[in-house]
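Notes taken during the Thursday session

The instructor put the following on the board and asked us to keep it in front of us for the whole hour. The protein is 1,3-beta-glucan synthase. We were told not to look anything up and to reason only from what is written here. First, the residues (1298 in total):
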Amino acid sequence: MFLQAVLVFVIPELLAILLFILPWIRNAIEEWDWSFVYLFTWWFHTRTFVGRGLREGLVDNVKYTVFWILVLASKFVFSYFLQIKPMVAPTKAILKVNIFQYKWHEFFGHSNRVAVVVMWMPVMLIYFTDLQIWYAIFSSFVGATVGLFSHLGEIRNIGQLRLRFQFFASAMQFKLRLRYGFGQPYTKIESSQVEATRFALIWNEIMTAFREEDLISYKELELLELPPNCWNVRVIRWPCVLLCNELLLALSQALELAEAPDSWIWLKISQSEYRRCAVIEAYDCIRYLLLSVVKYGSEENSIVGKFFNEVDGHIQIGKFAENYNLCLLPKIHSKVIQLVELLRKPRKDERATVDVLQALYELCVREFPKLKRSIPELRNDGLASQRETELLFENAVQFPDAEDEFFNRQLRRVHTILTSRDSMHDVPKNIEARRRIAFFSNSLFMNMPRAPNVEKMMAFSVLTPYYDEEVCFGKENLRTPNEDGISILFYLQKIYEDEWRNFMERMKREGMEDEDDVWDKKSRDLRLWASYRGQTLSRTVRGMMYYYRALKMLAYLDSASEVDIRAGTQLGRATSTVGLLFKGHEYGSALMKFTYVVACQVYGQHKAKGDPRADEILHLMKNNEALRVAYVDEVHLGRDEAEYYSVLVKYDQEQQREVEVYRVRLPGPLKLGEGKPENQNHAFIFTRGDAVQTIDMNQDNSFEEALKMRNLLEEFKVHYGIRRPTILGVRENIFTGSVSSLAWFMSAQETSFVTLGQRVLANPLKIRMHYGHPDVFDRFWFMPRGGVSKASRLINISEDIFAGFNCTLRGGNVTHHEYIQVGKGRDVGLNQISMFEAKVASGNGEQILSRDVYRLGHRLDFFRMLSFYYTTVGFFFNTMVVVLTVYSFLWGRLYLALSGIEGYAMETSKNNKAFGVILNQQFFIQIGLFTALPMVVENSLEHGFLPAVWDFLTMQLQLASVFYTFSMGTRAHFFGRTILHGGAKYRATGRGFVVQHKSFAENYRLYSRSHFVKAIELGVILIVYAAHSPMAQDSFVYLAMTLSSWFLVLSWIMAPFVFNPSGFDWLKTVYDFEDFLNWIWYKGGVFTKAEHSWETWWYEEQDHLRTTGLWGKLLEIILDLRYFMFQYGVVYQLNITGGKTSISVYLLSWIYMIAVMGIYVVMMYAQERFAAKEHIKYRLTQLVVISMTVLVLTLLLDFTSFTLLDLVSSMLAFVPTGWGLISIALVLRPFLESTVVWDTVVSLARIYDLLFGVIVMAPVALLSWLPGFQAMQTRILFNEAFSRGLQISRILSGKKTN
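Then, after some discussion, the predicted structure tokens were revealed:
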């Protein structure tokens, strides 16, 4: 019977394993609704439609299963041999120790089991958390491998692009489908091909976009562009940056091989493609130039033509070196340079030009040939003048028009090729331009589908939710200085110094005469320039409209004939924009395929109020043809009635006004939850096409990336596993990393997540969700499935990820593609970053309660569920457990020290090993190093190993570890609080520039409960342990054991001040403390805000306890009981106890607490009753209380064994007890608020916050007082910006001496 019962139990398990190996069968079964199927598959079949058929294909199944088997195997082997096994023998030894006398009253008899539990607690917590570390390690290397096979990082910088530029031209045509038919994708491109001109048109348009964005100067534009094939040049005219120095190198090679045959010399020169092209281009340009300068039809023109024909003839038969003296080439070269320089001058000097031409004639015709010819022979060959009297070139010079910009541009190019001696590796100078060129060129060698014609591509829309953020910086906003005397414009000029120079150069070309005119005549351009460097709607709109511009150009290239393309070579004569070639249909094609909808939720209200933001949005619509704005219109019908409409508007260019396109009535008010998801979903109906790209308000795009959108949309047609994609994941580039070191840390962390992290989630783990914009959605798939966001209040606070949950649960497929990227802005100040981290952590706490996560946990197979857990809620849960591990470790050490077990074990040398083992466990707590591994690996892959290591070391020197440790505390606090009590809320972080100093009171309000109080608690534990532990007597052992804990304490206390501009300025510290005291003591009233009054803030800070349930309150009280442990342990260590361990000692110690509370109540009562009117009575009360206290202390010192050291120890014991009582009183607030006790609780809490403030302020004040720390802190905080030309010392002192 037993075996039969076992068989019945095992059969479903065996079937489950079989169906796991054959996933398609399980998917098919789950999609059937037949009753007999449900009867046989009751243990996994569900009546719910959502969550069926989630199994992946066999290949994907094998990939993620193998990944997790390797991770789990590594974890268990490591844990067994280095965590569990070393603990076994010492545990047995401690359990065998004879009964000994405890130093306190032990409730658990004389057993050592509690000591064993305390020892094992941190070990077990690490055991359950370190799988997160193993995941980080394996995902880093798997992600790097996948990236390598995707050809990521093949072109890491401009230097590597130079080597592959000729193949890059071919790759661009193949991938962007600028040519058709079959053939090799990567081949060298020749000048005669139409493809060369197609490539030049696109490349020049990219460079023009760079110039419009002020990333490069006009000079750099000329050096980087591919000029049109003119002046009868026979080779492709590569950008000047590739040809620089090549002619001089060819010249030196020719001189070295002066006596060698032509074939040898040419073979040597042709080893470099660019050198070969430079030589031919220089030769052809000089011929054309000489024939242009010397009058057509003149005798001199004929001589020049004959000379070049003769040289060509010798080159064709391979006799050039044999017939000409190559040693004269440097002289000819210098004379040609002289001629070009004379022609470049605004005022032409005819006499000097004639002299140079005559000198050139003498060199080339008389001296250059090895076989010297007489005058009659030269006349006979047409190489000498028939005139006897007049000198050559006297009246034959014809200067080109000085206003001919095209001719002048070609002349400058020739001059560059002839004279450049450096290799121009610093062109372009701008770091962002270099990064973008390198990424774009690398992406064309990556695996991507080939693009279809614009007519045949999938139509798509872009959707951006907008509330009331900045659209475009106002003039006053730019020039108004902050408290440090710094305006936004001044700050931007220093960070983007080269871009400001380029902007001013552009303005002068557009007619600005004086630099001061920029505020008047060019104010719109100035405001846009600043807005394009902030996180504004203008920047996002400009970036997304590059899709429209790219599609217009690609539509032209699709339909252009060979004649049209060749006509493009004339483009450079007027301008470098391809728009002049358009025939008209390109605009229609682009509008058919692309629409941009900005969901400006309150645009109607802005218009009604006359808000300048409404005018700015209208201006954006006016200048961007494909832009549409959706908003919610509230129409009031009567006193209490209102109707709500979703409205879509556009700007009509013919009517020159805004017109309404659609109006859809809504059933009621739009806002149900946090606002943003509803804003996206109401505008979703106004998008068009097959796909929708969701773009946030702080994103950007570039022209060169927009060119690849056709390729990306083709991914919807490709099967990834057993399904086509429904969300195409796109990588992000964080563009705010250069603002400060803090922004750099955030950027580095975020970059590794949106690249390597997402790459691994998509392949091999098949569990990528939607983590925010800029993913591309299958519009028709999502439209009937609830849109792209979920909008319930609180539970959907992290609204974006629920689109991914929804997609996975309903059988969708999410992929990730890295050949295209979109810019993303991130928070740049510590307070902004912390609020963002708090929002994300709270959102994850709420996700745990959602049915989406519940269903995914139930319906995914075991290994895919592991992937899901460790990359979403598990990451935050494990972060919380890491902090709990530190707590358990330190509380455990304190228990062992105060109970006396540690001292007893120290005397027994054989038990020392147990404590050494726990000491080793401490090093695994530092999860930070392993979570930084993906960052280092991704950096190595994309930029090289040495730069990655250098960046990592630089970050450590700039205290990145302090920032990451602080962030860990933020995540742990808010995730834990949300799990316990709920109460998650949306936190608007703001997207401004952070250069102003944050006051101490503001930092205290933000971080006191999440970091300061916890850090002070851990600090008190460490001090008490140091005072009472025999192990701590050895300083080295104590430091080795507690170093990482002290680092945590200091990070949590000091980070808000280390990363605060002017954080260690002495005057600011003094003013901050005064402001803090005013805030603490200000009583306030009903409408007082938290930033003005401590009391208002204190009540707001406890809001989560008012809404929590019974279990939340019970758990909070249990956690608060730990504060009484200090008193219980320390009391028995006091000399006054005389070594007694009775429970009565602890009970009597409460007399001290009651006495202190009594004194405090008496003093507060006396202050309220007598301080104002009867001051003598108040002073008398103070005298009596002080006298009684001194008398009691004197009696204790004289008649008992009480010492002054006991007084200090008792402070460390009883202060935490008071905080514990306040914390419990807060939980019991509904019962206490109406009693007399509550006023005492409030006033006592105020004193505690003042005490905490003083403790936190003390090290800040000390460092502010010491010389040099302010300069050092500024260097740490703004180091990255320093290297970009930011003069922070001048900025922070407000001296605008520039």
